[in-house]
Amino acid sequence: MAVLTRPFVPEDAEACGAIVAITPLWQRYKLTAAAAAAQLIAAHARGETVTVIESDSQVAGFAWVVPAGAFGMCPYLRRIVVAPDQRGLRLGAQLLRAVEEHSAKLATDLFLLVSDFNADAQRFYKREGYEEVGRLADFVLPGVAELIFRKRVRAVPT
Ligand SMILES: CC(C)(COP(=O)(O)OP(=O)(O)OC[C@H]1O[C@@H](n2cnc3c(N)ncnc32)[C@H](O)[C@@H]1OP(=O)(O)O)[C@@H](O)C(=O)NCCC(=O)NCCS
Fold it and tell me: Does residue 4 carry a pLDDT above 90?
């Protein structure tokens, strides 16, 4: 399996949108393939950072970071996903590593939100060194809390 991470190009949008649309998490948030693809094209045009992971030359997932999306100070990982048939192969960890290396050039911390019901992703993030620092009840969906996760990606000089 040949795996590489690279910057998103608009031609990736359709494949990325399709991965989002077949993921039950975002079906619950009513996010369609077309809307997810349009979000990525717009984010890319605004200069936000979208990183694609390829496996054997096929788009296998992506991560989208808003550079000062957390409090106007720190990068915010807005979305990360790996195609369902490629999960559990450490592609997500590799994608996260690329995001963290990029984020460390911008600020000391990286933030993300994860749904309270998404236990698999919470386990994934905790194993990758993230800690829960807060929760936003009813923030996106009624009855669902978005947990705020944070990782220090660059040492702070003392
Ligand atoms: C979370 C996600 C990006 C991780 O990518 P990945 O390539 O599967 O992750 P890795 O192989 O590096 O690590 C595997 C870990 O991911 C988590 N995971 C989440 N969903 C999983 C799935 N369907 N299959 C396997 N692992 C999954 C588990 O914690 C797993 O660890 P475990 O072995 O302790 O169960 C990916 O599973 C995914 O796209 N999930 C659906 C979308 C999502 O929840 N995104 C995060 C929103 S905040």
Answer: yes
Residue pair 108/152 in contact by the 8 Å Cβ criterion: yes
What's the order of all strands across the beta sheet hosting 49-55? 3-7, 49-55, 58-70, 74-82, 109-115, 145-152, 131-137
Q: What is the pLDDT of residue 156?
A: 85
Ligand 1, atom 33: closest residue by C-alpha:
88
- Measured from the Cα of 19, ligand 1's closest atom is 39
Q: Probe ligand 1: pick from 5, 81, 120, max atoms within 8 Å of CB?
A: 120
- Report the pLDDT value the prediction gives residue 16, as an integer from 0 to 100: 98
Residues in a beta bridge with 114: 147
Kindly tell me the number of DSSP H helices and DSSP E strands found in the chain.
5, 7
